[in-house]
Amino acid sequence: MERSPRSFRIGLVIHGKRIWLSEFLSIFSVSVISLFLLSISFLILLNEIKIKRNDRDIARLRIEKVVTDNKLEILRGKNRIALLLCSFSKNKVPSKTVYNLAEIVFVNSRQFGYDPLLLLSVINVESFFNPIAKGKFRSGNLSGALGLMQLKLETAQSVARKLKMGEIRKEDLLKPEINLVLGVAYLTELISRFRSFKLGLMAYNLGPGAVREFLAKKESLPLEYYRKVLKAYYELKDISNRSAALQYPSGCR
User: What DSSP designation does 145 have?
Assistant: First the structure.
């Protein structure tokens, strides 16, 4: 009887145990593949972490850009107002007043939804940008109107109560940041009350009672104040339109 030939296998003896070379190669191959897959998984994880970190950085940079753009827009707006005021007043307004006015006009125009040029026009007619102006009657006697927007104390106190600003004194009306807030709020109230910008503006000058009396008698309202404000507004508008790159006049630096 012939014996079947026995297959030849090479084995290794490790710690007294025989491991065949084919089994060793299989284990080695599996280990290499597993290590390769593990490395790939680790690299993928690192890339995911980097991508998320980059996404966070991009989001942060976008937010910073929005904030920076907003700040830049605000600075440009204030600078534009200052430049217009300088050109319009022909250097007759001190630099300190120009910068202060540009700040508070910009803030209030945003808060109350006004064209800043309109507020400048009203201030121009009321006080010619003098924060400590004191109004006078034609006779020369003091009228009691004070500050940039020529508010009387009683009117200012009434508006301040509605805005919950506390007690207002005469000296407070000589502070531009207070006077302008109260003046713009009062003008807004009158425009809303009469449902007309024109009537509201004239009521600001003549008083709401006087305007109602004119309307009740169906008499023509005096338009001098209204025309002065519009004239100043269109002059400012013209300066703004003609001067794409306004420069500070020497007196406003």
Answer: E
